[in-house]
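Dear colleagues,

I hope this message finds you well. In preparation for our joint manuscript, I am sending the non-specific serine/threonine protein kinase (Triticum turgidum subsp. durum) sequence together with its predicted structure, so that both groups work from identical material. I would be grateful if you could confirm receipt.
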Amino acid sequence: MEKPTKTKHMPSSSPFAVILLYLMIKVMSPGFKSAYATDALFPGQFLTGNQTLLSKHGAFKLGFDCVFPRCGYDYRFGIWYIKSSACRPLLVWSPLGDSIDCYPLYSRFGFTTYGNLQLYCNPVNGIVNGWSSDLSSSHVIDSDSLLTVLLDNGNLVIRDPVNSSLVIWQSFDNPIGTLLPGGWLGFNRNTSKNVFLIPHASVISWRNGEADGAPLEAANGIVLAMNPNQGGGFIVKENFHEIYHGTFPSWMGIHEDGGNFFLFSDASVYVQLNKDGTITAAKLGECGSVLWSAHAPHNHKIHSVVILTVIVVLTLLLTALVLLWIIQKKSVMDRPVNSNSSLTIFSNIQIKKATGNFSVKLGEGGFGCVFKGTLQGSTLVAVKKLKDFGQGEKQFRAEAQTIGMIQHINVVRLFGFCAEGSKRLLVYEYMENGSLSSHLFPKSPATLVWELRYRIALGTARGLAYLHEGCMDCIIHCDMKPDNVLLDADFCPKVADFGLAKLLGRDFSRALTTMRGTIGYLAPEWISGLPITHKADVYSYGMMLLEIVSGRRNAEKIKQGRFTYFPIFAAVKVNEGDVMCLLDSRLEDDVDVDVEQLMRVCRTACWCIQDAEDHRPMMGQVVQMLQGVLDVQLGSRWTLHDGGKRMEITRSQHKNNHAKQTRMIMMHDTTK
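The corresponding structure tokens are as follows:
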């Protein structure tokens, strides 16, 4: 990325300096014409002084302008709405925030030959600030053929000059302070990016006197995001914690797209997020007259004088409380497991405090209950309170340390544990979107689109492959099901509850038969008493893959002709080439379903649920199958398990005009 040259301007008494000063005054005078009175910038072109880009119909301009009428030292750079003749220009996007004053003459904004937008600001306070769109070379094939255009809806884009739909970067994907008509919030499936709105003052993150470049989620930490679980809903967060939520009024013309993001389609209404978390809506050209607003309940500001008075009155009490807290903290301070471990040993008192005495229950399973908690520093965690453990403290610590060493993007991370007296607790990272099962099955309020289902299937396969093949010792999960696949804020899947059987030191095969909902995922070797290998996880994953496709529990009875067991029905339909009948009926309107991708997923699932474990693929091969790297062929004979019986599904073929054609699908009971 090309960095702006930082030049220090010094006064001079030479004649040349006088001439230069005169030219500068002329450039800054109202009669001076901008060098770029168009809506586009080409590589190598820069704006400075009063030069601007003007959108096609004159609604917006990009350049330096002043916020207040007298135009002293309050020049800001950004996109301004200028169509109203009654109102001053409205700043709707500024990469450096609305509090950074720049000298227009000594600052510049341009489109570099490397295909990046770059702002160099020489501000009033003397601290040089910079910003860049920070596009890597992988995004740009030929930067010389690109151009930057200010559209008439206020969107600044880097695009192909011929194909206007080929957009490399746009300000609508990085909204700052204002959400213009036509803007959006939520997860954009085209860019795989979660778009949220931040206040103007939240943009800068300082590092050695320079800005990082891209707008960040936290400066003062305020964020306006879409609420995917509520139609037209929004969430306002501060430092990743929800302050409040609500819904936008219907008259704003919000258009939702598959539950993933929505557009503000009203042609004149814009939304602003203030740094105190307040949301306002107004009409362009009406000088900011508020039509609607929202703020956190009881969000009243207490005057600083009152706060100081209270502090003075309660000084002695607060001092005593602080001293007590310090003493308590020293007595129960977090201790690392050892010098080589990142795990933390928590006391039972700390866990109770973090969970509010186990007040918010997230779920319950065969190993125990899970509660929501918050550690110091506002870190959200999930605390699993174990039951029926069979190991002593020393063995428990050793096994927990083994689990804590496992780190992968698709595996839930263990932060620490508590082994105090009879208490056994595990502290995991918190997954905002809960388990896969809570989103997958019919009673879920929102339907997962196919693209998300495929990403979840692939990510889960990668996590299992890491446990089987990427760790020093192969870790068999033994309880793979949608309930044990958790989703973070971006719906990235993470495998959970791995290694708990060994951790608790108990007969896992007997434990499984008592767990509700787990029987449908048991490989035949569990029932027949054969040794359990990592191929048992492959079988369970295949069953879960069919559930991801169909949105139904695999153990449910069905009525499909002569079929009562869904996996057998699915295998027959895959052999016949009819996979669309297996797809979740709620995805009928999902135009982004990739049929070839769906076929790969269904074929992979059928290979995974083979009765004989040596016929099942490794999880590393499953990843390659789902990615299309490894070809997934139809099986000439698949042997599946159905309620204690083995069913063979065969594919007979004959030649006719030198072409292989499927003649029939035969099912045989091979238990005799």
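For the figure legend, we might mention the following. The mean pLDDT is 77. The first strand starts at residue 40 and ends at 41.

With kind regards,
E.M.
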